[in-house]
Amino acid sequence: MPSVAVDIRHLSFRYDEEYVLEDITAQIYDREYIAIIGPNGGGKSTLLKLILGLLRPTKGEILIYGQPPEKKRTIIGYLPQNINFNLDIPLTAKTIILQGRLSRNKLFYDPQDYEALESVAHKLKISHLLHTKISHLSGGERQKVLLARALVTEPKLLVLDEPTASVDLGAQKEIYAILKELDMTKIVVSHDINIILEGVDRVFYINRKLFIHDNIELKITPREGHFCEMELFEELKRSCDA
Question: In 10 A of CB 179, how many CB atoms?
């Protein structure tokens, strides 16, 4: 039995008097690949922030490999939903990726940092982009660079919030293919419910409450690799009611 990577125990969270998440309990196992889907405002990104320790639960708790999130931040790689660069600043992909190796107590790079850079760039097939300015990259290339920045710390847990937003279908498929091959615990929040096609182990549907979909047999056929979203929601509802 694999160890528990993320242990969520009777978790609730509210902003002011309104609960966004209510009495959520779940375990995510080491090296498991989890997709989190649900409507806007349903609590997906809030749950990620709680896992990262950026928010504290109103009730209940979250443990990351047995400890509170704030004690495990060094083993978590994170790709947030919105990263806005000033494209007038001539930063290269190499500079962006290496930023992932810096911390409050570390201001300079060492040989191990450059080895990690070369390794992750090779894995993501972006070595040829390292000296390219971020402003000259396509949306898909930019997302790969940001994913590399999250991976360069060699995390045990990778957390991604909308990693394929604002990129074309070809780039989406490339990023999903990369994620499928990564040997670590992965949690991906996505509005694109077609992520269910991309090799995830389980699907967490969140709309204040948590509904876990495990071993779902989908009985609709994707068109050009994608489902119609309404068809997929209906199929998920059917599988829950069955």
Answer: 21
- Which helix (H) or strand (E) segment is 175 a member of? helix 169-181
Handedness of CA 102, 162, 155, 27 (dihedral sign): positive
> What digits encode the pLDDT tens for the residues 138-168?
888 999 999 999 999 999 999 999 888 878 8
Are the C-beta atoms of 97 and 151 separated by less than 8 Å? no
Q: Which DSSP category does 54 fall into?
A: S
Alpha-carbon gap, residue 155 to 185, rounded angstroms:
9
Beta bridge partners of 223: 226
d(CA 114, CA 101): 9
| pLDDT (tens digit per residue) in 190-237 | 887 777 777 899 999 999 999 998 865 555 555 555 555 555 656 555
Q: CA–CA separation, 32 vs 40, rounded Å?
A: 25
- Give the whole-angstrom CA distance, residue 210 versus residue 91: 41
Per DSSP, helices labelled H in 32-168 are: 44-52, 93-98, 111-123, 139-151
Q: Computed over its alpha carbons, how large is the radius of gyration of the chain?
A: 18
DSSP H/E element including 19: strand 18-29
The sign one gets for the Cα dihedral 97, 132, 136, 85 is positive
Task: Identify the DSSP state of 128.
Answer: G
Helix (H) or strand (E) segment spanning residue 10 = strand 4-15
**Using one digit for the tens of pLDDT, what is the confidence trace for 70-86?**
999 999 999 987 666 66
For domain 4-241, the question of CATH label 3.40.50.300 is answered with: yes
CA 214 from centre of chain: 19
